[in-house]
Amino acid sequence: MRTGIRFLLGNEPRHLSDVDPTQTVLDYLRDDETLCGTKEGCAEGDCGACTVMLAERDGTGGIRYRPVNSCIMFMAALDGKQLVTIEHLRGPEGKLHPVQQAMMDHHAAQCGFCTPGFVMSLATLHQAGATVERAEIADALAGNLCRCTGYRPIYDAARSALAKPRGAEDRVADAVTLAAALNALDSGAETLDVTGSGRRFVAPRSLDELTRLLAHHPDALILGGGTDIGLWVTKQRQSLALLVATEHVPELRKIAVTETLLSIGAAVPYADAMASLTALHPETVTLLRRIGSRQIRERGTIGGNIANASPIGDMPPLLIAMGAVLVIVSAKGERRLAVEDFFKGYRRTDLQPGEVLAAIEIPKPTPDLRLGIYKVSKRFDQDISAVCAGFSFALDGERVRSIRIGYGGMAATPVRARDVEAKLIGAVWGLPAVEAAMAGIDHAFTPLSDMRASASYRSLIARNLLLKFYLEHPAAGEMPARIRLDQPESLPV
């Protein structure tokens, strides 16, 4: 067991003991290291001014670089990694990094407050050898806000920097050398157990160790990526007595594919799971890209999105539609539970003391299964859903053989719309059946009004998303005769 945090700051080793494990990386950089290039804008992972680069071993001897929000990342999560800030990008004799030079050449900095975050997001893209595709650049910068409206020159700078050949001198570090340095800091076998300022952080190294720890401390707070829990500290000023991290539990970081299902460990970040999910269901790509920014997706975990039991979490409606099953473990054994049965009330789940969500199992689709997933929010990027809906169905001829409908934002929990499904099972897949099911949505849900949407708007959207799914998946593969885009009055409301 190790009681100190070990990491590289740039290329310099840091060994910290008696440190508050829930101190944010941003506060450490600015207050302890006086590295003030990293800025605090929102302290909740939205604006990107605090973006830094995190390097970690990828399990194959290589290095994975991730852009992350330092404002909601705890210090203990740095253990065994390299932290790179804008101050570490300069080369010998003060030579600017290609992204920094491009930002200057294209006059991409105005007030300059957001600039370090933009540079770090683009430097991570540069380090990965990304192309100059507009969509990739836009996705990389979706989590960085410029209040001076300087996006065009920033985009021009990104295109310029990424278009040029990248030599070894432009890399942040040599992968082999860095991997050896990180191995020297952390063998991967020692459990991290840090205590400071009355708070404790434990990072078990196996599932058995994790479940034994939870059996002794059933009230411990389980930490995945921390993209939600981080706000409990920065915004709510909570004092978290005991955090048990899942990040270093190999069994919870696995992605496995069998003949019948895709299994994703609960501690797998979104960014690592996206390729497998989109290979299974290409329709999921847009929703997955809209779950936070790249900074959030590099830390946030699918298991965390489920276990925090938010009624407006984006993954549960999709997983309900997919027919996913949760694997829950404890020192007593293992059990499985359908996603829709996991939520017991507002922010309450079926997890019992000592249990942890270990994996999500998603059945492979049959050839005739059709899937649709829709998110409605005020902004396309970086926004929380007003309503999120997932649909899947299969037909026998013209009749509905099976259908699953999941909604978020329509109740105190994510829900499966069983009553709506019942109106469609066995019915001819056509507008009359869909309209009847749409009418049933009003009776099935009593949504709330809040800052994101009114109850009546949510009900309207929930109905219309079912209609949208039908329009995109008609039985005969053609636009239904009664609905014409040039005759909007024919649309049901």
UniProtKB/TrEMBL annotation:
Keyword Oxidoreductase: yes
Organism: Acidisoma silvae
Cross-referenced SUPFAM superfamilies: 2Fe-2S ferredoxin-like, CO dehydrogenase flavoprotein C-terminal domain-like, CO dehydrogenase ISP C-domain like, FAD-binding/transporter-associated domain-like
EC number(s) per entry: 1.17.1.4
Pfam families, sorted: CO_deh_flav_C (PF03450), FAD_binding_5 (PF00941), Fer2 (PF00111), Fer2_2 (PF01799)
Protein name: Xanthine dehydrogenase small subunit
Keywords: FAD, Flavoprotein, Iron, Metal-binding, Oxidoreductase
NCBIfam families per the UniProt record, alphabetical: xanthine_xdhA
Gene3D superfamilies: 3.10.20.30, 3.30.465.10, [2Fe-2S]-binding domain, CO dehydrogenase flavoprotein, C-terminal domain, Uridine Diphospho-n-acetylenolpyruvylglucosamine Reductase, domain 2
UniProt keyword Nucleotide-binding present: no
InterPro entries per record: 2Fe-2S-bd (IPR002888), 2Fe-2S-bd_dom_sf (IPR036884), 2Fe-2S_ferredoxin-like_sf (IPR036010), 2Fe-2S_ferredoxin-type (IPR001041), 2Fe2S_fd_BS (IPR006058), Ald_Oxase/xanthine_DH-like (IPR016208), Beta-grasp_dom_sf (IPR012675), CO_DH_flav_C (IPR005107)
PANTHER family: XANTHINE DEHYDROGENASE
One GO molecular-function entry: iron ion binding
Enzyme class: oxidoreductase
Domain called 2Fe-2S ferredoxin-type: residue spans: 3-89
Domain FAD-binding PCMH-type per the UniProt entry, residue ranges: 194-367
Lineage: Bacteria, Pseudomonadati, Pseudomonadota, Alphaproteobacteria, Acetobacterales
